């Protein structure tokens, strides 16, 4: 075997390999193949290039390494272990613990182990983002690259390159096939993100067999067409060529880089005949022995760490990162003295805090029977808040004039490559994601992982296109704000393809996601207040296209009640209500009309606005019972969306005016009438409920 590097390198690489196959073998679960084939690629990057301090995996200017092929995580865990990455910054309570201990490797995929089935952000230090669904990591890395560029343009000053890190993502065939990665690569190419390097371990095999079955395009040409710098390596074991390729990435200043490494699943190269294959399942004890023999390792030693391996990593990877970090700390100390305001902003970003004065200038909307759409009121509130929080930024998937998400201050072109024809700048805060909803949602995650407060936006219906990324954001508890407008059949003419039905229910079913559907302009203000104060959860802020009245809050309950998730907006004049109307969004106005009609007929009703079920569920029992007293069983829920889930609040005997079908194409008012969303219908249903529950209680008494 011809190797143009020293023995220590290969000892380290083979230890990464043997650890990985031992983990999978012991767990009887996982994918050993890619760690074998991609070990030299990852090793070369970590050992020779990555700027990363093992003593502080949270150092803000570290290079990011994203394992987009999350199923290859034994490789990442082996790296974290051998590089002795600490579990957190030295100040953290976990001071002495390492990100991954031997015990974790031994318990790969078992309960409590830091070596989870796929890498999980927030659980294992050194994992930059949760990956597993292929394509997500790659797309998320584009968000990190955008964030780096924005931070650099905004905060770097002459002699103070506070933010000059690079973003690497290790990708597989599957990543290259997934649409989300294509969307993200196209965007990265457009933005000329030269701080971004994807490394494609092209091993020509997926679960069902050879990529020849389903994937025969020329990836290099595709990426060249996206505007990337593409490097191709024929031999995954050639550390010299790998080094040259990474260096070429560092030397490229005008576009992102894709390094395609032709590898063979297992550990061989196309030049070697004696390679072994493995995909999707443990090798088996015999095969593990043979593999170790082939590598020249002791076939009977499991989880063996040869002498000198950790030291070799420490001497290069560790030393380089430690020095870079120490230099940075000194630089930041000087910077703080010179630019205290900017340094203060950076500290807020790193701690995910909002500035003290962030609520200054927030509007109070006067009562107005005609009102305005909640997308419009949201646009005004967003602009007011963004004026106080420079790192609140985002955009839409080509719909910002509709979703009202443009920041006036960042017009006309927002975040763009500074040399581009559009005349934008990397300091811009309006992102133009183009028609790429899925990548947009992943990019939002990446920006958030880098400390920014991003929002992403489109019509509510198109969250379906971004769902997998939104789900990961919820799993990672990232405070990304989704601004989703055109929130119901009330959007009208665009018809059933654009009218969301099941989206609200599906997000309410998603753990960790907070769904907020405010009912008028002042609820919108309160919604933004809640959103900006929570820094560990994503929101779906669900807004209307059509105008809705701004309620007279001197007559009805104050909108601050929204902070409890649900609150009483209108109530029986005297005594207990006979019926409760529960609602969210624009249907609040319908319920208020129905309430007034009922009152005129002597029927005592209560209207409960429920913009956020999740927040309501966190309230005390006594608060929840005060809003929805268990003894009042006559209940009507009104929401222009799937009825699914409302039984929780109406009870099975209650009524739900919701949607049981897709919508129809017609003007909004006609569509609403067609499906019974009218005050008169609510009144009738409320009366029927009262009668129904009266009969029920008579029956109860009779029994
Ligand atoms: C979106 C998504 N679909 C399916 C899977 C299940 N899956 C895990 S690995 C894999 C095959 C991956 O092949 P490749 O990307 O070439 O990785 P490698 O062969 O290098 O392990 C599949 C289909 C997944 N993780 N994510």
Automatic annotation (TrEMBL):
Residues 400-425 are annotated as: Disordered. SUPFAM superfamilies: Thiamin diphosphate-binding fold (THDP-binding) (SSF52518), TK C-terminal domain-like (SSF52922). The record marks 31, 279 as: Important for catalytic activity. It catalyses: D-sedoheptulose 7-phosphate + D-glyceraldehyde 3-phosphate = aldehydo-D-ribose 5-phosphate + D-xylulose 5-phosphate. Mg(2+) binds at residues 173, 203, 205. Pfam families: Transket_pyr, Transketolase_C_1, Transketolase_N. Residues 372-550 form the Transketolase-like pyrimidine-binding domain. The active site is at residue 437. Its cofactor is thiamine diphosphate; Ca(2+); Co(2+); Mg(2+). One of its GO terms (cellular component) is cytosol. Substrate binds at residues 31, 279, 375, 402, 486, 494, 498, 545. Binds 1 thiamine pyrophosphate per subunit. During the reaction, the substrate forms a covalent intermediate with the cofactor. GO terms for molecular function: metal ion binding; transketolase activity. GO terms for biological process: pentose-phosphate shunt. Keywords: Calcium, Magnesium, Metal-binding, Thiamine pyrophosphate, Transferase. Its EC number is 2.2.1.1. Thiamine diphosphate binds at residues 71, 132-134, 174, 203, 279, 462. Belongs to the transketolase family. Homodimer. This is Transketolase. It comes from Eoetvoesiella caeni.
